[in-house]
Amino acid sequence: MHNLDSDSEDELPPGWVEKSTDDGNVYFVNSGTNKIQWTHPRTGRKKIIPQDLPFGWTKTVDETGKTLYVQQETGNKTYVDPRLAFATEEKKHVNDFRQRFDSSTTAFQVLHGIDLSGKFALITGCNAGIGYETAKSLARHGCNILMANRNMEATKKAIADIVKETNASEDNLKSIHLDLASLESVKKCAMTVKTIFSDYLDILILNAAVFGLPYTETIDKLETTFQVNYLAHLYFTLLLEPLLKKGTRVIFVSSESHRFASLQNVFTQQNVAMTRDSYSSMMAYNNSKLYMVMIAKILSEEWRDKQICVNSLHPGNMVYTNLSKSWWLFRLLFFIVRPFTKSMQQAAATTVYTAVASELDHVTGLYFNNCYYCAPSELSRDEDLAWEVFTLSLKIIEERMGSDGIQKYIYKCMTRLNGEKK
Q1: Predicted local distance difference test score (pLDDT) of residue 6
Q2: Do the bridges between strand 88-89 and strand 47-48 make them parallel or antiparallel, or are there none, so unpaired?
Q3: pLDDT confidence bin for 51, thresholds 50/70/90
Q4: Which residue from 130, 124, 161 is spatially nearest to 146, judged by alpha carbons?
Q5: Which candidate in 69, 132, 235, 285 is catalytic?
Q6: Average pLDDT, whole number, for the chain?
Q7: pTM of the full predicted structure?
Q8: C-alpha 127: how far from its chain's center?
Q9: Is 285 marked active-site?
Q10: What is the pLDDT of residues 228-284, one digit of tens each?
Q11: Would you place residue 421 in the very low, low, confident or very high pLDDT band (cuts 50, 70, 90)?
């Protein structure tokens, strides 16, 4: 397993020590010559540390007035600033960060030392599976979680389980009804969320999904996988835009399956969902995940000036969750490959990483896998195609729900379309 506490390039030469200032800067001291410098003696780069102490640590002074750090849970004391464990190189470019984690990393390891007290996160589809593990991991570190799910009984049990397993406060875990198969439910939920989070939402994780369904239609007369996995999430996100401020992180949980999407015959009758005649459950899933990557990229550009960060990700290959419950053959296949896939903690790691990692401040428009960014499919990077999907998606929503909350994007799409026609 990758050693999370070691980095050979960062290793100091003999005789050098790393120290910190109160305002979050790192400096280096040569104990032999007493030489002091701001750059790493090996890499030549500056480093910075978080301004806040890691979760559970406090700062005091000893009897001589020297700064002393205390770990409240264990009582351990040290003169070494614990923030130095989370030092990062000062970026020359916003996307200039090194890989700290790998495919074996768990959400627990990603969150080590991080305090999320006072943070507010909304997660869809989190009463089981990866979403549940994500909510549990964030709650364990003090985050206030609003769990948006269709099954409220299961959500009530999930909250009780999280409280029992993490000692998180029940006051920090709330639930709200959200049925992604109903755009009216999406609108109602968004309106209620705005009353709960009257000012600011720190993290929005769009996690809910269905997989392997036969062709069915929602109450909105749309193919179910298309609406639940993608369209309803898009609508929900746009309606919640007033709560998204500088520093908010919006995370679209996609899949490596997006690389196998096919848009052949999809745009029939101005509808980006698959029709009954050409329907394939696997392809419907692949396409929905492609749309998630596309829309994450579009919104990252639309909200860049507001410093709202929008990214997409892949959590893990064939993770054994209730996602496969729709057909016995899928359940069997997922069961067979279970020993070779990620655990729930590992599968939640990338979602948690994109939600909280300090090096991802201001990072937007990327696709992540195994806690690091990678190039999404070539199809997802087709900007014109992505805007066509966006335009048709908004049209579908407008036909059923009107233009409230999405009007400015409809106008922008029409302006872009008219400009292309000229």
Answers
A1: 41
A2: antiparallel
A3: confident
A4: 124
A5: 285
A6: 88
A7: 0.79
A8: 17
A9: yes
A10: 999 999 999 999 999 999 999 999 999 999 999 999 889 887 889 999 999 999 999
A11: low
Structure token digits, residue 30: 């040569």
Query: What are 365-386's pLDDT values in tens digits?
Result: 999 999 999 999 999 999 999 9
